[in-house]
Automatic annotation (TrEMBL):
Protein name, as recorded: Phage holin family protein
Annotated Pfam families: Phage_holin_4_2
Highest taxon in the source lineage: Bacteria
Coiled-coil residues: none
Keywords: Membrane, Transmembrane, Transmembrane helix
Length: 136
């Protein structure tokens, strides 16, 4: 449970960074809303995104493994963009304001999100170092 909440938080921050960098091409929440409703919207979108990448992502990546290998991993960009667009559709079904301008903006957003997640995750979940003491 702790790992899920950590991943959810990291995804929320990464989605905010992507929305900030992409400007009008990726919107989370309504600009007329106050801070509270926008934070709630970000948390809901991040929750949907976390669940989609945790459940749908591994299945799609496993089924696409030969294509991922042939393209030397570039197919992962397409898969991640499609997962982001799926997140948009699911959020839309729940009447949550989240929009990406199209496939290529989703590809760019997925790159930004991946980089942001890596950086934020390094601070939230730093690698643990074991200290071993050898006694002779």
């Amino acid at each position: 449970m702790e790992r899920f909440i950590s991943t959810w938080f990291v995804s929320a921050v990464a989605l905010c960074v992507a929305a900030w960098l992409l400007g009008e091409h990726m919107n989370i929440g309504d600009s007329a809303d106050g801070t509270g409703p926008r934070v709630l919207t970000v948390l809901v979108v991040a929750l949907v995104f976390t669940v989609v990448t945790a459940i749908v992502g591994p299945v799609v990546k496993l089924l696409s493994l030969p294509f991922i290998i042939v393209t030397l991993g570039l197919a992962l960009l397409v898969i991640n963009a499609l997962l982001l667009l799926l997140t948009e559709r699911i959020a839309e079904a729940f009447d949550v304001s989240f929009h990406v301008d199209g496939f290529w903006w989703a590809v760019l957003a997925s790159i930004v999100i991946s980089l942001s997640q890596t950086i934020v995750n390094a601070f939230v979940n730093p690698p643990r170092r074991e200290v071993r003491v050898f006694r002779g």
